[in-house]
Amino acid sequence: MANIRDGFGSKAGVIAAAAGSAVGLGNIWRFPYVAGENGGGAFLLIYLGFILVIGFPVMLAELTIGRRAQLNALGSFKKLAPGKPWFLVGLMGIGAAFVILAFYSTIAGWTLEYLSQAISNGFSGKSADELKVSFESFQAAPFRPLIWQMVFMFLTGFIVFSGVKKGIEKYAKILMPVLLVLILIISVRSLTLPGAMGGIEFLFKPDFSKITWGVVLDALGQAAFSLSIGMGTLITYGSYIKKDINLPITALQVTAADTFIAVLAGIMIFPAVFAFGIDPAEGFGLVFIVLPNIFEQMAGGYFFSILFFVLLAIAALTSTVSVLEVVVAYFSEELNMSRKKATILGSVGISIVGVFATLSFGPLKNAVLFDKTIFAWFDFLSANVLLPLGAIFIVIFVGWHLGKKQVKDEISNQGELKVRLINVFMIIVKFFAPVAIAAVFLYGLGLF
Ligand code: PHE
């Protein structure tokens, strides 16, 4: 390749971009609704366990692969294991990117609708019931949600198109700190609502009678989804990280930031859920029904609602960008397309699949298979099937194919850094993580 590969410019930029990928609708929209459907406290505990013993090691494994190879998700496997079928793991990741972005962009589009409603003061004077009804009629109406989805895909494409340093990194560095401040402020308001304690209990008091293998799989899927692991996003981002950045510390910081924001989102949502008498198992719409209620009750609610939906959209955007980048890096490096062409092709292709996800709240509502709509299938397939499977292969690759010597060389920056616990890490990636993920996966799907 003649020209120099694009990449992240600074340490702060790496963290912002990787945390930008991890922190997103997965934390603020998906985590509360999945936790709500799975009984709250006990789910949270299992989720946190998975983050620590599986999520973090898989993240480090992915960054290691990417930085070692300096290539896209598929090219990395081809380079590190020439002539072997490992590249199929990369291919599966690219497939997963399509499935994830297809349904993620539906919800991301909803955030833009809610932003426009916030601006036009659309929540004001509405009761909890009215807010619920207005949400339901919006998501079922086919055109507005579709248009917003396309707008969102366009924004995503725009940033990716601008490049890694001048697009992804630049925007993440501005947007992530603002997001944090806002979520803190709104959590405080939610916590001070009358009746808030019910929500805190729901979130933090484990009730183990609710736990089934299905719940455990949901917790694993949520952990993987939220950390952006298992499909090559962090392989791709890892490939843009300079050789002097400390990978274990980066993985730790990103994991911590992501987990913190997820728990904070729970603290923001559940008190309000209980204060307004909403069912925590409400499902996909939970955040969109609950938050307008908080804003309605909040001094300065108009102002905060606008800020919040701007930030929700932003959180989504720094994540959609990272998913699209997987596809674009693959198209441009493996299929020799220009970045421009790769971005257009990727976004248009994904948008077409995405139409089906969006329409499954309206005209395609009755297209269900085993009780799940198309949207629900995309959501389930990506988090609970494709990401765990991808994660299994990634850790096996790092543990058994790369092996301790190469791993140590990469994460120590060629011997520059002292790495501790490398043996623990190797045991996790060689044995513990693959077996644990496989067991949860098989039991959770009821195949065992
Ligand atoms: N982690 C992102 C979120 O929580 C979603 C995502 C999943 C991004 C997989 C990239 C890869 O919103």
Molecular structure report:
The radius of gyration is 21 Å and the shape is globular. It has helices spanning 11-22, 25-37, 41-69, 73-80, 87-119, 128-140, 143-161, 164-191, 197-204, 213-227, 233-238, 247-275, 286-296, 301-334, 339-359, 374-411, 422-444. The mean pLDDT is 92. It has a single domain, classed as Hydantoin permease (Orthogonal Bundle), CATH 1.10.4160. The chain has 448 residues and is an all-alpha fold. Bound molecules: phenylalanine. Phenylalanine (PHE) is lined by residues 21-22, 24-27, 100, 225-226, 228, 231, 233, 319, 322-323. Phenylalanine binds at residues 21-22, 24-27, 100, 225-226, 228, 231, 233, 319, 322-323.
At a glance:
The protein is mainly alpha-helical.
Give the proportion of residues in helices. Answer: over 70%
SSE string, helix = H, strand = E?
HHHHHHHHHHHHHHHHH
Shape: globular
Determine the CATH topology. Answer: Hydantoin permease
Overview features:
about 450 residues; mainly alpha; Hydantoin permease; about 75% helix; globular; binds phenylalanine
